[in-house]
Specification:
Strand content: 35-45%
Number of domains: 1
Helix content: 10-25%
CATH architecture: Sandwich
Order of helices and strands: EEEHEEEEEHEHEE
Structural class: mainly beta
Number of strands: 11
Oligomer: single chain
Radius of gyration: 15 Å
Distance between the termini: 28 Å
Number of helices: 3
Largest sheet: 6 strands, antiparallel
């Protein structure tokens, strides 16, 4: 989105692992969901594109012994990083993850936070961001 204070970028360490970097380009603090709870874990997904097809990779539903919303504050001109490994067993579908090795495959990160009572009460940023596609080697 043009003028959006929050930006997203994928930094790959391998074809299936790396980190998502969310940068606050605005002039005020932004609050983002932490991972490790249902609110944070549902925010991040990936689109894998190959051979003219595109499919979404999402985190598998998790069972939490304690599921409470928690967030982090990102100050202006600061970054928040989310590490990921699509082959760690917590992402699905495996058939799409296997396509990461297809010739010409690309990956795009999608960070999406829906409006909810919890987001409102915790003053968490809401909206959707898409990274630039990254071509895999």
């Amino acid at each position: 989105m043009s003028g959006e204070p929050l930006t997203i970028q994928v930094e790959l360490e391998s074809a299936n692992a790396g980190k998502i970097v969310l940068a606050n380009r605005g002039s005020a603090d932004l609050r983002l969901w932490n991972m490790g709870n249902s609110w944070g874990d549902e925010t991040l997904s990936f689109e894998v594109t190959w051979d003219g097809r595109s499919e979404r990779v999402t985190r598998k539903p998790q069972d939490y012994t304690r599921n409470v919303p928690s967030s982090a504050v990102v100050a202006p001109n600061r970054k928040h990083q989310i590490p990921f490994d699509l082959r760690d067993g917590t992402w699905e579908p495996a058939e799409v993850i296997d396509r990461l090795t297809s010739p010409g495959a690309q990956i795009t990160a999608v960070y999406s936070v829906r409006k909810s009572p919890e987001a409102l009460s915790h003053d968490v940023w809401t909206g959707e961001l898409r990274s630039q596609p990254v071509r895999l080697k």
